[in-house]
Amino acid sequence: MNRTTQLCCLLALAILTATSCKPDKSSGETVITRDVPLTNKMPKPPPINPYETPEKGSFADPTPPPKLPIVDFLITHYWVFEYYLHAQEFDRGRTNQFRWYKFSPDGTFIAGQWETVVSKGTWKLATGETKNTVIIIDSDNDAEDSQWDMQPNESGDEMSWSGVRSTTYQGHLIKVINLMTMPSSLDKSSQISWQSFSWQLAGGVRVETNWLLTD
Fold this sequence. Notes:
Lipocalin, 3 helices, single chain, mainly beta
């Protein structure tokens, strides 16, 4: 057997060995954490606003999160949806604006919109595809169950959330701001203006959009 033939045989053996060592993986499967594969490959269509079309459900027992800077960041005051970009229903999706979450250090949360508490549940953190931080929300309103890639800013007063790929809210983008209290409907502005906003997504992708602000 000459040298060329030997090299070809070794290469074929190496490829065969590498292929046989890979774990079984269904076509289209997306891994969103280090060791938990995503099982739902065809997520159901997202609601326009989960508070307008609630689905009665339940949530898992809370698990206190580890002591991490991102946890301290999350449990500070109220996190309010200032701008919400729905992937399928741009105009109607704006009804999600001024929804909010109040995360507690024991792994529970309450949530609502404006001055009204609407739901409760548990939350936990995971690691996404690009080692970004993912928050998993498990609500007593099943329509609100969701997973979001989080990108905090350096000042600690706002975040961008993007729906995790291959989940119900994939493609949805939110600008989330930190307020000391739940938002008041008395704070609504009656002015109409265009503003530009951008989101920094996992992997360094930036999305920019123009937004028409109305009362």
